[in-house]
Design brief:
This protein is mostly beta strands. It has strands spanning 3-6, 8-9, 21-28, 31-39, 61-67, 72-78, 84-90, 95-98, 103-109, 112-119, 130-137, 144-147. It has a single domain (3-163), classed as Sandwich (Immunoglobulin-like), CATH 2.60.40.1190. The model has no long low-confidence stretch (mean pLDDT 94).
Length: 175
């Protein structure tokens, strides 16, 4: 059950302890279980009720990308107000399905937010898996792009799949 500590900027610069977030992942026959613990930055929430929300990456969010073989991957985004976005992709940025279902609960307390979520295993690519995790917060020039494993380049680009480390999520019939 890996825990991914988001502890640097997208390009690898260390961040302070009060800005760090973590994502714990576990895959079993019921699906992929995610547990998020992140600082609450109180950025404006998306318009609309909690639930599937397009363009959630434009708001305060924690994201997990799960990459399988042949550049097939699932992107899972969860925000501190209960909004979420699940995408499946077949090739870099080639979305095959969007706003997929995600069972999620979110709470905020003492300057932090926590989420527990479960994604159906059918929405994940076959393994072996490689992953990365990100956190985004801030508005305008104060926008921050943070990561577990840096994705170097001229600008933040979370779809640099070649930088995703291999991770054992657990065993299912699809792995």
């Amino acid at each position: 059950m890996p825990t991914l500590e988001i502890g640097s900027t997208w390009d690898g610069q260390p961040i302070s302890a009060d800005e760090r977030a973590s994502v714990t992942l576990r895959l079993d026959s019921a699906g992929l279980h995610l547990a998020i613990d992140a600082p609450f930055h109180a950025d404006p929430p998306p318009v609309g009720a909690p639930g599937p929300t397009w363009a959630l990456w434009e708001h305060e969010v924690v994201e997990v990308f799960v990459l399988g073989e042949r550049e097939r991957y699932t992107e899972i985004e969860i925000g501190p107000h209960g909004h979420h976005l699940v995408l499946t992709l077949d090739g870099r940025r080639a979305i095959t399905a969007r706003e997929l279902p995600l069972a999620v609960s979110v709470s905020r307390e003492d300057g932090r937010w926590r989420a527990a979520a479960r994604l159906s295993a059918d929405l994940l690519p076959p393994g072996p898996h490689r992953v990365n995790a990100y956190a985004i917060h801030g508005v305008g020039p104060d926008r921050r792009y943070l990561c577990w494993t840096p994705v170097p380049g001229p600008a933040p680009d979370f779809h640099r799949l070649e930088y995703f480390p291999a991770v054992s999520l657990g065993q299912t019939a699809r792995s």
